[in-house]
Specification:
This protein is mostly beta strands and 192 residues long. The chain is built from 2 helices and 9 strands. Strand 1 (31-41) and strand 2 form a beta hairpin.
Length: 192
């Protein structure tokens, strides 16, 4: 008797609501994506580096695509560096970041969908590797960046992108020739 009641209850639950599977809406193959947003470069070197980012990507395959990214920084000395400079006249030997130009590859790691408020949010988890240069107040420094990111489609044409990366630049300093920084970028974009 119990097993019959349990079977009936399961059958009623399965009949109550049909299973719905959203088709894949976030297609990248053969598409061009552009985005614009904010960035922050943190290197622990007495410079405060907020910035703006512009990027363009083209996906020849569904799983990956070439990307170019340009960032402009509005760098200034931190409060503690300004106080030290005013008191002693010393300034940090770290270079002041002004712009960053990178080109590389963006690879989709997985595709997913999440139900939010009755709608499906389509997203891609991605990784990227870029090379290029950091333009500073004292010249050009070769740079490389590796990042992990999330690309989420808001509607047919608009998407949000969050990248969290590590930037390695090779600069002439007194103690070291390499500077490692944390580079998060949040942008919104459109598919063209």
């Amino acid at each position: 008797m119990r097993s019959a009641a349990l079977l009936l209850l399961c059958a009623l639950g399965a009949h109550a609501e049909g299973v719905r599977v959203e088709p894949r809406l976030f297609l990248k193959r053969g598409h061009f994506f552009t985005s614009f947003g904010g960035a922050w470069l943190e290197r622990g070197d007495y410079w405060v580096n907020p910035g703006l980012s512009f990027s363009g990507s083209y996906y020849p395959t569904e799983s990956g695509g070439a990307e170019a990214r340009v960032l402009w920084f509005f760098s200034s000395l931190s409060d503690s560096a300004q106080r030290i400079s005013a008191t002693t006249g010393f300034v940090p030997d770290a270079r002041k970041p002004e712009a960053l130009a990178l080109a590389g590859w963006r690879q989709s790691l997985t595709y997913g969908k999440v139900a939010l408020a009755g709608e499906a949010l389509h997203f891609d988890l991605q990784g990227s590797l870029h090379g290029g240069g950091l333009f500073t107040d004292r010249g050009f420094a070769p740079a490389a960046c590796v990042s992990a990111g999330l690309l989420a489609r808001l509607n047919r044409w608009v998407f949000l992108q969050l990248d969290v990366g590590l930037l390695l630049s090779f600069e002439q300093r007194q103690r070291s020739g390499a500077a490692l920084g944390f580079l998060p970028v949040l942008s919104a974009g459109a598919e063209l």
